Amino acid sequence: MRASRLVSLSLVTLVLAGSITGVGMALVSTTATSSPPPPPKAGNWRVVQSPDSWTYNYTGATCEPGTQTCFLSGGTFGGVARLTETTDGGTSWSSLSNGLPSLQAGMDTIVCPSASTCFGGGGAMNNTTGTIVPSILVSTNGAATWSNQTLPAGIINGTDKVIRAVACGNTSDCFAFTNGGSIVATTNGGGTWSTQTSPTGNAFHGAACPSATNCFAVADSGTIVA
């Protein structure tokens, strides 16, 4: 009788030991699976050379989704717009400025919600008044050529001078923000633009849209609008 109890206890001990070992292995496996991912590849930063030897001021940058094609936009204080492209992830750059409208005085910002559709914002020369007015451009062929958009009269004839930021939730729904605190929007890919009620008169500097109905923009004096 005592011998059989010893055998039973030994078997129970072995079973428990096996269960604990199994649990321990499972815990180790789970811990290994949930370890943090490696840091992103970006981090080893360096200065790269542009085709114009940095004689222009670049103020905007964007990449076509899912590609190695990216664009830099900007201009000079003298009113010359500039657009530069890389198709190999930044190894080499080339100018696309010849595709910009002749009166475009600068492209402060650029965004490409798809591989073919891009929007640019900045200022253009008004030949009638001789002043710089807000300008939005759209390209439907991957930034090869651009066309001017018609903006509401209140934006053109007001105190706003340039479009400082453009953000899109998709290729149809986009918002543009000016240096005078104004906001305009399109729901048809730039076909028409309408004035939005802006909660601030501060100059905008940047914007982003995580969805078609949710956007954020930042302006002077620590202002954030959403």
Question: If you had to describe this structure to a student in words, what would you say it looks like?
Answer:
The protein is of the alpha+beta class and 226 residues long. It is 16% helix and 37% strand. It is built from 2 helices and 15 strands. Strands 1-2-3-4 form a 4-stranded antiparallel beta sheet, with no helix packed on it. Strands 5-6-7-8 form a 4-stranded antiparallel beta sheet, with no helix packed on it. It is globular, with a radius of gyration of 28 Å. The protein starts with a helix and ends with a strand. The relative contact order is 0.09.
Proportion of β residues? 35-45%
The helical percent reads 10-25%
Number of helices: 2
Q: Give the number of DSSP strands.
A: 15
Poorly predicted runs of 5 or more residues: 1-33
- Secondary-structure-based class equals alpha+beta
| Succession of helices and strands | HEEEEEEEEHEEEEEEE
